[in-house]
Design goal:
Rossmann fold; two-stranded antiparallel ribbon; globular; binds nicotinamide-adenine-dinucleotide; binds zinc ion
Amino acid sequence: MKTVTVSLGDRSYPIHIEAGLLPRAAERLAPLSRGRRMAIVTDENVRGHLATLQASLEAAGVASEAIVLPPGEKTKSWAMLERVCDRLLELGVERSDHVIALGGGVIGDLVGFACSIIKRGCRFVQIPTTLLAQVDSSVGGKTAINTAAGKNLIGAFHQPAMVLIDPDVLDSLPARQVRAGYAEVVKYGLIDDFAFFEWCEANGPALLAGDPAARVHAIAHSVAAKARIVAADEHETNGIRALLNLGHTFGHALEAEAGFSDRLLHGEGVAAGCALAFRYSMRKGLCERQDAERVAAHFRAIGLPDGLAAAGIDAPSATLVEHMKHDKKMAAGTLPFLLARGIGQTYLDKTVDLADVTAFLDGEPR
Ligand SMILES: NC(=O)c1ccc[n+]([C@@H]2O[C@H](COP(=O)([O-])OP(=O)(O)OC[C@H]3O[C@@H](n4cnc5c(N)ncnc54)[C@H](O)[C@@H]3O)[C@@H](O)[C@H]2O)c1
Ligand SMILES: [Zn+2]
């Protein structure tokens, strides 16, 4: 068992990582149940793991009730928020109860937000079942739903009480989803950890093939990096947490152009976005060509997009930059960009001129 702690004073919490943890989850959950029934929220594609979790709880004498939602990004909606909140209230959830979010980032974000507002806040536990959720979204307390105006625009910071990660649940996840989540793993290396990027180059293929040791190492290393960043800047106010957005400004523009659909998964947008951020940094004379090429080559080797063409995006540059202008991070007419002086040397630049970004994108192959 590997345990990483997110240190946030009285809101600190452990992240437990171990293969085979889900069938034994009740060891960690029963002490939180206070002898009461536990509510579990999940989606239809995670039913198999729900059965494992409920069996574990039942064997420990803990009753549970499942709320099973439709899968997909559309579930992060006002309608589903209402459905989850109404059902949790019907079940009599109290402030000291722990609701269990079993699923990918969609379930984690929706349930986390529901728990931030139910009775002005109840507790919740994250049991992430996608690689993306295991290395990123289940940790750090960002919760949200999407609205007509855009993604993640309604939400709250609400930290979970515990995160339980069983890499074995990834066995049932489609390979494309595993690859997309892997982009966020590579991101931690690109941000400030060159040695970890080298580890990814050497071990990424084994990780994607399901190698148990590679999975545990990648997950534990990623959540430790995220835990450090979140502890240093919980509410994204001093520029440290913003580093996690590497590749996301370009990536979101591509995702928006693809209509936030299965045409381009979030992690695929992030991979292409990181490659673009490095090439843009190269164009600005910040990093060496070989660094930008090395980043792109790793994504290509893994089967992730390394730019617009591979992401299937042929929109004009002006359209893509228009998408960027709707970014939440846009402030007083400027958009902070994550740029790189090299692999593992990312920094936040608030002086980027969007006309220059447009010119850069004009030079990118479609
Ligand atoms: N809160 C944060 O800090 C944060 C960070 C990054 C991303 N996000 C959010 O996370 C969401 C994306 O998360 P995601 O990529 O996990 O998507 P997701 O939750 O939609 O899961 C992807 C797909 O895999 C299925 N699935 C989940 N676990 C499975 C399993 N073990 N076996 C088989 N199928 C399984 C789901 O039903 C879904 O169809 C986005 O909404 C994004 O905004 C949040
Ligand atoms: Zn992301």
